[in-house]
Amino acid sequence: MTRPVRKPVPEPASEGQEPSQRGLSASVLKNFLHFLARSGSVTYAATRSGIERRTLYRRKAHDEAFAAQWDEALQLGIDRLQDDAMRRALHGTERAVFRNGKQVGSTQQYDNKLLQFLLRAHRPEVYGEKKQSAAPPLPFDLAQRLAASAPRLDAHRAEKAAKRLEEEGKERRKEKQPRRERKNAKG
Fold first, then answer.
1. Cα-Cα-Cα-Cα dihedral of 74, 117, 96, 108, to 10°?
2. Residue at 104 is within a domain
């Protein structure tokens, strides 16, 4: 269930104050930073604080002190997410087991993909993507070698064809020889 976005009550504009800074009280901004530090999500923190994201981003662009607080809160939120991911990867999460519509127990499930991701992030030299090194250059140029072998292949094929023709000729002579002998015997 999402909560409706609460419209902040605008504060009176002060001289020299940027338009994006009007209407944001210190307590509203503190609330936003609190939710940002807990979640690591600007969208979630803005929604929970009742402030539009673009208003916050404009404030961040014009207020260096707020930008520094934003960055610190965001890092805290990301650290918290990382800690929770590490806990779930190492200790797993409990899942209910049901039978015939009734819970009969529970099991601990571990997320191996999450563990792999965390290991890759923290130890990229061991678990990171292996960079494919370029294959060592071959000691010869394959195209040149194929081109050089073409005449040898043609010669081999011609030799094979000549042998085949010679064999066929021998076969024909053997077939014709008995006919000649027959003709000589009749004559």
1. -120
2. yes
Which residues, other chains included, contact 6 with Cβ-Cβ below 8 Å and sequence gap of 6+? 49, 50
Q: 115 with 90: CB under 8 angstroms?
A: yes
Whether the Cβ atoms of residue 49 and residue 35 lie closer than 8 Å to each other: yes
Quote the percentage of the chain above a pLDDT of 70. 76
CA 3 – CA 18 distance, rounded (Å): 29
In a shared domain, residues 66 and 118: no
Closest alpha carbon to 73 in 52, 46, 51: 46
- Which pair of structure tokens corresponds to residue 50? 């009742």
Structure tokens at 115: 């563990």
- Quick: pLDDT tens for 33-57: 999 999 889 999 999 999 999 999 9
Give CA–CA dist 137/57, Å, rounded.
Answer: 52
Helix locations, 19-110, DSSP H: 26-39, 42-49, 53-62, 64-91
Q: Specify the DSSP class assigned to residue 52.
A: -
Based on the domain organization, do 62 and 35 belong to the same domain? Answer: yes
User: Residue length, the chain?
Assistant: 187
**Based on the structure, what is the number of domains in the chain?**
3
Q: Give bridge partners of residue 97 from the DSSP assignment.
A: 105
129-162 tens-digit pLDDT: 776 666 666 566 777 777 788 888 899 999 999 9
114 belongs to a structural domain? yes
Which domain range does residue 163 map to? 155-187
